[in-house]
Amino acid sequence: MSEPELSTLVTIKCKQQTIRAVRFNVDGSYCLTCGADKKIKLWNPHKQLLLKTYGGHANEVLDAAGSCDSSHFVSCSSDKSVILWDVATGQPIRRYRGHASTVTCVKFNEESTMAISGSVDNTVAFWDTLSRRQEPVQVLKDAKDTITAVQVTNHEILTCSVDCHVRLYDIRVGKMTSDYIGQIVTFGSITHDGQCFVLSCADSTVKLFDKDSGELLNTFSGHESKDLLLENAVNEKDSHIISGSANGEVFYWDLINSNCTRKLVHCKQKPVVTLSQHPTESYLLTACEDEVKLWGTKALEE
Which compartments does it reside in (predicted)? Predict the structure, then answer.
């Protein structure tokens, strides 16, 4: 069965200098854009509607994540801080300053009781978002270089690093498994079924690994990563791997046979680094410079 064509449904000029990260919220009705202008903006991308702007960071905002009920979100910045925000009031509730350097990535756990951040200081920190505690509850210090990405499931944390390793922490039993990938890992995601992780590597490949055995199942290539920290995503059906590229194209590969089945062109010869897959539908958000595009099938909009 051939996949329906994806086209640009909406183009948003964010007016944030450069978008460092774009993220759907938990149900895909809203999205957050993190800007080089130190601001985070909340949008309804389907209606091209700016809902709120959040200012409080002292430098570029590099990542953000919405809570499980969309009432809060966390953001992180090259100002070394993580901020917990109240979505409705637009106010920062907590400001966490435990990292010694730029904070590159941040996620919530499933219940949104803990924020987990990774940094250029090589550590991953856990912040209790319910208490008034200012220090991290726990700090993971296993990585030997910058943490590029963190992913969280109900009992596991995946961390990716410039030290060419990914580490999987099983919180239930307090166990850490480290895998040497042989390349700088710029981003990692986990398939929806929880069986595999998908790693973007600095050698212009995306690699699919079995989470339990550590076996390399597939390699996806054809895109150019240059020295960018390209992100990847898995589509809502776990059937395709998605990545941006240095030259403005967004690649879709078949997860099983690794064939490139689709290329979207966001903007010619300008990098598409950050993207976000809708949790249940085939919508995709991509960002290039100051512009975010919402992709989808025409049938989705009807």
Answer: Cytoplasm
What does the pLDDT look like over 92-107, one tens digit per residue? 999 999 999 999 999 9
- How far is 221 from 5, CA to CA, in rounded Å? 21
DSSP 8-class letter at 59: S
Token representation of residue 102: 């730029």
How far is 123 from 117, CA to CA, in rounded Å?
8
Element holding 127 (H helix, E strand): strand 124-128
CA pair distance 166, 160, nearest whole angstrom? 5
Q: What is the DSSP string of 241-273?
A: EEE--TTSEEEEEETTT--EEEEEESSTTS---
Across 144-274, the runs of DSSP E, i.e. the strands, are: 147-152, 156-161, 165-170, 175-180, 185-190, 196-201, 205-210, 216-221, 232-234, 240-243, 249-254, 260-265
Q: What does the pLDDT read at residue 4? A: 74
The encoded tokens of residue 234 equal: 């898995």
Of the chain, the end-to-end C-alpha distance in Å amounts to 21
Q: Average pLDDT in the 248-258 region?
A: 97
What is the distance between the alpha carbons of residues 4 and 24, in angstroms, rounded to a whole number? 22
In angstroms, the CA 55 to CA 34 distance is: 11
- What token pair was written down for 264? 């979207």
* pLDDT tier, 1 (very low <50, low <70, confident <90, very high otherwise): very low
Contacts of 226 (CB under 8 A, 6+ apart): 246, 271
Task: List the beta bridge partners of residue 234.
Answer: 241
Is residue 79 within 8 Å of 57, Cβ to Cβ?
Answer: yes
**What DSSP element (H or E) covers 299?**
helix 298-301
